[in-house]
């Protein structure tokens, strides 16, 4: 559901009966450092780094080695202050609050020189009562402390035992003890980006004044009963009048011809009003579908409070018919249960992982999420090392049909559980659940990223005898606090304690499994940069592959903006500096070298650009092979393993210009992997692979209906544009939501059948079609490494604009991994002289 708070009336429109007035303190504040040597204007929302940059006091923080040069910024203590006049008569209001939607992170808040509160959690929202200190002209000051120094101090104060990890590996160039402060991890860092533990006010700040009562939040939940669609409407009030406030509530969903009136009476104090709206049985409510599976239908609902004294409050929201639960049933042939999200219809969860960036615009969110759906993804995990995203992000996910796997912000670390820390976390979790639970896009809550695995696989070398104490802390934080808050605050979707985890099996083992990454249960994270990624036998036949991936470098055009000429080689100091994953650059070359000739131009810049391109080819091909393995494992159980119902590769977007697992570069440019994802996440896909020298093609369908089609298998030599042979199967019915074997042939027979083919001289391509209409992307299978390919020659490729504005490419020879800037598809294998790529709509097979 999408929520619009329409109640905070704009000043000019506020009549005498307005319940609340709000005055935003967004805009320019004054910023100064600890010893007062620097004083400058700074934007709110914003951070110290951007204020310094705007003033020209620092350069682009992402330029070359500036992340190290600007470390002093995060070690200083900054103060944000502002003086302002409130443009309405403040004394006439019964209660006045200062609301801080997001403070980063550790600060003391002074209002008119009186300390009104403190903040220590950037994921929490703070509201301080300033009724007694507010005047017409005011001063506000947020005295920040370096979060880095604060974390170190908290860690030192925790004397009973260590809470590892103390410091990240040197290669990550991050700060220590990040688990002791509730602040975005990725900026401090966990190896994904530069370390900028900044300070500032990163969301809105405002003064809220109200009479009688303050309407705070409104939530609407669908309740599913046998045949009806009912809604629970929950609104929270702070009633400040000394007498009860009574009146009527009128709830309406015009499109569903539904309206109901309720009488209410609100007693003084914090009040929650719960109302139920029953939609008539004879009205059809359309379903909210994930992207690629149907419409994202939402209905406008209005909630009008008509209260004593002429107080009118109107809120509107979008409500959707959507339900999700985890399937827990047993799985035939396996000791573990299923790991599927059950919506109205079971779909494969395909997609990737997102980590938040702080200073983003709506355009950034749009660009990012549009790229998600354009690549045929339906799921995005908001990862525990980033931030809970802004409202707008989830609203867009609701609109676009992107299912969100929402982590709580805990990742790759153990955490303290002293009372102060727990109180802060409890406030954060309760607030985030309230803020986010109305979004149909959120399908699951997850307690943390990899902390069950960290504990049970002993990443931090904890002495065996100490382990029970750490397990106790783990259970305290994620089970006794976070899980309890989720169960109390949101009954509409499942909660898992960690990822990877074993679900019910983990619970049975006391919330920590011996091997949380088991193939038989729950989800699996899998990374292996050394084994040959073209060999699918390397990959786990998991129930749900929730994390996997390979690194690549962003394109030269992206890097060029933050580097200088001497940086432009793969072994430069810069290339080493930007790589925050130990041996990452070596691993990429190793993996690429297994199947490709490494670039060896005499021109160093050419070599650098070619190496970048090759890392992208390697990444795209590796993630393709791995993803296709998971997709084709959808319907089968082999040695008790399989029935893979999810494939979420790591990761979607970059937060700076550096090598990483991302498929979108900083700025949004698609890497080759993102183009590949568009194909391998297509709703209908043929997947080719070999087992013991037999070539197989599986058909993978994530469609809702059965379709009749044929499979065409072609073999090309590298040196010719004409296929040397082509075979079309009989018509068959591709069953909805299944992965089945469509084709098998010993490789030796295939080679013999196709003239003079050898593994080195030929390549196989295949597609699904009906009546000469292409139904799937054209996929391919290499019979040998490309470095051994024979007859592959340098292709001349030209691009032309055809009739109707579409573009076409023309090649002189078979060409793999064709890359054309600003082309709608990229990284493709060209086996035909011209490339045209048209997918036509499907017609369901009529059942007879
Ligand atoms: C920042 O504040 C901390 C704690 O109050 C103090 O120890 C430190 O010296 C201060 N640093 C600067 C640069 O002012
Ligand atoms: C004040 O702080 C700045 C930034 O940390 C530092 O460069 C400068 O030396 C300090 N000045 C004095 C007088 O301590
Ligand atoms: C509305 O639905 C709720 C929940 O199913 C039920 O308890 C209640 O009796 C229903 N009310 C009416 C008027 O049908
Ligand atoms: C739905 O059915 C009820 C009787 O059960 C009837 O009174 C009502 O008019 C119907 N509503 C619509 C919109 O058809
Ligand atoms: C809500 O969607 C589900 C799944 O598509 C459907 O079965 C149900 O009938 C819908 N509810 C109503 C009230 O139409
Ligand atoms: C989606 O919406 C369109 C336009 O409202 C409608 O024609 C179509 O039937 C809907 N599709 C589904 C699957 O509900
Ligand atoms: C729903 O409400 C929004 C915002 O209030 C409005 O823009 C939109 O047109 C409404 N949609 C319908 C179908 O009434
Ligand atoms: C494990 O025990 C040894 C010896 O008692 C101690 O030095 C070390 O710090 C302990 N390690 C951890 C992680 O607590
Ligand atoms: C196989 O190769 C031979 C010798 O190069 C050639 O004469 C023959 O035409 C080829 N056959 C096919 C089917 O391509």
From TrEMBL:
Its EC number is 3.2.1.25. It comes from the Eukaryota. It catalyses: Hydrolysis of terminal, non-reducing beta-D-mannose residues in beta-D-mannosides. Belongs to the glycosyl hydrolase 2 family. It is an enzyme of class 3 (hydrolase). One of its GO terms (cellular component) is lysosome. Keywords: Glycoprotein, Glycosidase, Hydrolase, Lysosome, Signal. One of its GO terms (molecular function) is beta-mannosidase activity. This is beta-mannosidase. Residues 1-19 form the signal peptide. It is found in: Lysosome. Residues 389-494 form the Glycoside hydrolase family 2 catalytic domain. Pathway: Glycan metabolism; N-glycan degradation. The lineage of its organism: Eukaryota, Metazoa, Chordata, Craniata, Vertebrata. Residues 29-203 form the Beta-mannosidase-like galactose-binding domain. Residues 695-787 form the Mannosidase Ig/CBM-like domain. GO terms for biological process: carbohydrate metabolic process; glycoprotein catabolic process.
């Amino acid at each position: 559901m999408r929520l619009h708070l329409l109640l905070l009336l704009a000043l000019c429109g506020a009549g005498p009966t307005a319940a609340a007035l709000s005055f935003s303190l967004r805009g320019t504040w004054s910023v100064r450092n600890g010893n007062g040597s620097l004083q400058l204007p700074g934007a709110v929302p914003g951070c110290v780094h951007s204020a310094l940059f705007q003033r020209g006091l620092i350069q682009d923080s992402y330029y070359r080695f500036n992340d190290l040069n600007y470390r002093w910024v995060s070690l200083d203590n900054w103060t944000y202050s502002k003086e302002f006049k409130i443009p309405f008569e403040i004394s006439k209001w019964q209660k006045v609050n200062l609301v801080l939607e997001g403070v980063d992170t550790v600060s003391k808040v002074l209002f008119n020189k009186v300390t009104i509160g403190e903040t220590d959690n950037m994921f929490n929202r703070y509201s301080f009562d300033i009724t007694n200190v507010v005047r017409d002209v005011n001063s506000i000051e947020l005295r920040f402390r370096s979060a880095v120094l604060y974390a170190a101090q908290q860690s030192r104060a925790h004397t009973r035992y260590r809470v590892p990890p103390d410091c990240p590996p040197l290669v990550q160039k991050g700060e220590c003890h990040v688990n002791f402060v509730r602040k975005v991890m990725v900026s401090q860092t966990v190896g994904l980006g530069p370390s900028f533990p900044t300070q500032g006010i990163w969301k809105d700040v405002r003064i809220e004044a109200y009479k009688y009562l303050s309407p705070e939040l409104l939530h609407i939940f669908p309740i599913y009963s046998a045949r009806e669609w009912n809604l629970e409407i929950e609104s929270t009030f702070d009633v400040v009048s000394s007498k009860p406030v009574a009146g009527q509530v009128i709830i309406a969903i015009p499109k569903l011809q539904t309206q109901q009136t309720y009488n209410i009476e609100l007693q003084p104090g914090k009040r929650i009003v719960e109302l139920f709206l029953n939609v008539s049985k004879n009205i059809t409510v359309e379903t909210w579908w994930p992207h690629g599976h149907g419409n994202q239908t939402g209905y406008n609902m209005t909630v009008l409070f008509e209260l004593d004294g002429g107080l009118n409050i109107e809120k509107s929201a979008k409500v959707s018919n959507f339900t999700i639960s985890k399937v827990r049933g047993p799985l035939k042939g396996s000791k573990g249960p299923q790991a599927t999200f059950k919506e109205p219809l079971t779909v494969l969860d395909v997609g990737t992982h997102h980590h938040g960036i702080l200073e983003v615009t709506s355009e950034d969110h749009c660009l990012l999420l549009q790229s998600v759906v354009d690549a045929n993804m339906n799921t995005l995990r908001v990862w525990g090392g980033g931030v809970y995203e802004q409202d707008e992000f989830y609203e867009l996910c609701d609109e676009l049909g992107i299912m969100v796997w929402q982590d709580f912000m805990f990742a790759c670390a153990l955490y303290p559980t002293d009372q102060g820390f727990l109180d802060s976390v409890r406030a954060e979790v309760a607030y985030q659940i309230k803020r986010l639970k109305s979004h149909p896009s959120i399908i699951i809550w997850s307690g943390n990223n990899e902390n069950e695995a960290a504990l049970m696989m002993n990443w931090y070398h904890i002495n065996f005898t100490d382990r029970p104490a750490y397990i106790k802390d783990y259970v305290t934080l994620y089970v006794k606090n976070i899980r309890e808050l989720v169960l109390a605050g949101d009954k509409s979707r499942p909660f898992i304690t960690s990822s990877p985890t074993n679900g019910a099996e983990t619970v049975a083992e006391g919330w920590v499994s011996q091997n949380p990454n088991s193939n038989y249960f729950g989800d699996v994270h899998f990374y292996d940069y050394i084994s040959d990624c073209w060999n699918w036998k390397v990959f786990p036949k998991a129930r749900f592959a929730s994390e996997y991936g390979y690194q690549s470098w962003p394109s030269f055009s992206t890097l060029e903006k933050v580097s200088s000429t001497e940086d432009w080689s793969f072994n430069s100091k810069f290339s080493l500096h930007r790589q925050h994953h130990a041996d990452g650059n070596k691993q990429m070359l190793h993996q690429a070298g297994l199947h490709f000739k490494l670039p060896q131009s005499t021109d160093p810049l050419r070599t650098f650009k070619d190496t970048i391109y090759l890392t992208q080819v390697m990444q795209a091909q590796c993630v393709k092979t791995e993803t296709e393995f998971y997709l084709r494992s959808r319907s089968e159980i082999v040695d008790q393993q399989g029935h893979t119902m999810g494939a979420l590769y790591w990761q979607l977007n970059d937060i700076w210009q550096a090598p990483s697992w991302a498929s979108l570069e900083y700025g949004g440019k698609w890497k080759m992997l993102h183009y590949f994802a568009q194909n391998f996440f297509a709703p209908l896909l043929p997947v080719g692979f070999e087992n013991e020298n037999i070539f197989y093609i599986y058909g993978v369908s994530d469609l809702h209906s059965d379709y009749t089609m044929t499979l065409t298998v072609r073999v090309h030599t590298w040196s010719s544009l004409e296929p040397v042979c082509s075979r079309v199967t009989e018509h068959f019915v591709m069953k909805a939501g299944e992965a089945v074997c469509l084709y098998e042939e010993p490789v030796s027979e295939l080679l013999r059948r196709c003239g003079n083919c050898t593994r080195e001289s030929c390549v196989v391509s295949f597609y699904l079609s009906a009546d000469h209409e292409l139904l799937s992307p054209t996929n391919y299978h290499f019979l040998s490494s490309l470095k051994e390919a024979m007859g592959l020659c340098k292709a001349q490729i030209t691009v032309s604009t055809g009739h109707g504005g579409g573009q076409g490419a023309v090649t002189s020879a078979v060409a793999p991994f064709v890359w054309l800037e600003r082309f709608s598809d990229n990284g493709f294998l060209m086996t035909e002289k011209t490339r045209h790529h048209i997918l036509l709509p499907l017609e369901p097979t009529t059942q007879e």
